[in-house]
Amino acid sequence: MRLARLTTLITSAIVLIFLTYTYTNLFTRIPIPFHRSKTTDKMGGGPVQGFRSAAYFVNWAIYGRKHRPQDLPVENLTHILYAFANVRSDSGEVHLTDGWADTDIHWEGDSWNDVGTNLYGCMKQLNLLKRRNRNLKVLLVVGGWTYSSNFKAPASTPQGRDTFARSCVDLIKNLGFDGIDIDWEYPQTAEEASDFVALLQTIRSAMDQYASTLPEWYHFELSVACPAGAQNYQKLNLPAMDALVDFWNLMAYDYAGSWDSIAGHQANLQPCQKNPKSTPFSTAAALAHYTSHGVPPDKLVLGMPLYGRAFENTDGPGTPYSGVGEGTWESGVFDYKVLPMPGAQEYHDEETGASYSYDAGQRKMVTYDTVHMARRKAEYIKGWGLGGAMWWESSADKPGHESLIGNVVHTFGGPNGLLRRDNCLTYPETKYDNLRNGFAG
């Protein structure tokens, strides 16, 4: 009896230790490490804990979408990724794409009679948000799908890379950015992948050189928007890139869309074993590849969509469709804030880690994240020990208790669960008087 009891106690202790250090994934039941994100603070402050919460803000949102920087839920964000800057393919110069939106438009409180050269537009408002929220960093996004063809030529030469990096620094010091996010979609050859590494190295060196000229050193952050499709991530030199970037924004969406012949999930966590045609890609496969090739989980930020992709004349996931119909701003794409559509019912595939709505009368499916799925993904992030969450793009979220951003951050533990690191407020070389003076007066 005593031996049996002792054996039982020892077994129970082993199980308790195992459960303490592992967390069972909600979807696969596979034990995976459970830990909070721990990132080395390159400012010299030692290890810090918490999750990144990053949202892409697009400069065209101020027009039809009527979405301004002032509308951002900054209490729930650590990073705003300001999109997009373009690059000149012949020289490598990085430049803004909409001067009116970026630096010129005047909003309430802006005067047309200010003396000197002053910054307005989205960048003034973002800098004001930074001053009120010291944990908020603003990174300039260079590239994106539309402009990515312009990377190849300048990235291939030392002169092009140098011009690229120097112009990035010029934009940082003039407009008040805290770093750069590179969105090259996508390097397609080993040579281009090597050029990408060289480009990141040149940017990193240029930002560090600029930081050394400031009254107090500041670590300007460098991130990349990275693919979740094997045909693209397998071509990247992940270990070499990881040595240069602060974090990776994994674009874990657009797994299915109008380019396919089958209706599918666009942001599923796992492949669907029962209905494999519904999940041509999966987040789990992407994470497995990145982490097995030297990328620490806590540097991977899981991207999530604030929109849905539609399929018409379909019987649901994994079945043929015909047409995608209209959308909020483009065909077949709906802002999350208008979903579900009237008459549609929401469904959750817990095993696959996906959600969607379906209108049986219209035979219309829309694949998107619901509040329930956003919370599940937040738990998934915690279970994997990932670095946080990212969203494309901020204008499409709902307010209040249905906000996907808000629900994910709440699952992280609220704003206190976010990574804490001060932004930069000192830009002594800027050409804008009000930014240099801290918007005093």
UniProtKB/TrEMBL annotation:
Keywords, A to Z, come to: Carbohydrate metabolism, Chitin degradation, Glycoprotein, Glycosidase, Hydrolase, Polysaccharide degradation, Secreted
InterPro entries assigned to the protein according to its UniProt record, in alphabetical order: Chitinase_II/V-like_cat, Chitinase_insertion_sf, GH, Glyco_hydro18_cat, Glyco_hydro_18_chit_AS, Glycosyl_Hydrlase_18
Q: Which GO terms describe its molecular function?
A: chitin binding; endochitinase activity
Query: What is the E.C. number?
Result: 3.2.1.14
> Can you cite an annotated GO cellular component?
extracellular region
Q: Which PANTHER family match?
A: CHITINASE (PTHR11177), CHITINASE 12-RELATED (PTHR11177:SF317)
* Protein name, as recorded: chitinase
